[in-house]
Design a protein that fits this description.
With 108 residues, the chain is mainly alpha-helical. Helix 2 links the parallel strand 1 and strand 2.
């Protein structure tokens, strides 16, 4: 969550390149990734960001990345998919267009 919150705040995240961070951060675009447990790489990265005016650009791009992926956009897209899948009768359709019953009752 720290990387996502940093992007939301317009701050470029700096993280180690493991777990979910490589999926969240695009190095050189909206943040920085460094080798896992490499303290020297972290120090070099922080000095480079402090000395480089691109740090602001990374923060701006991070904010844009967050807005593109924010939950509201995902929820809107999911609702579009559901509306496409639901017939006026309230039944769902499978990929072949056949009606199927919702597992937990009617959707409407």
């Amino acid at each position: 969550m720290v990387a996502v919150e940093a992007m939301a705040a317009g701050t470029a995240p700096v993280a180690s390149a493991h777990r979910a961070f490589p999926e969240l951060i695009t190095p050189g675009a909206d943040g920085a990734l460094l080798p896992r447990a490499d303290v020297d790489a972290l120090v070099d990265m922080l000095v480079d960001i402090a000395d480089n005016p691109q740090g602001d650009r990374y923060g701006q791009q991070g904010r844009q990345t967050y807005q593109d992926r924010c939950p509201d956009a995902g929820i809107s897209r999911l609702l579009e998919i559901y509306c496409f899948a639901v017939e006026p009768s309230g039944h769902l359709k499978d990929i072949a267009g056949r009606s199927i019953r919702p597992a937990f009752g009617a959707l409407r």
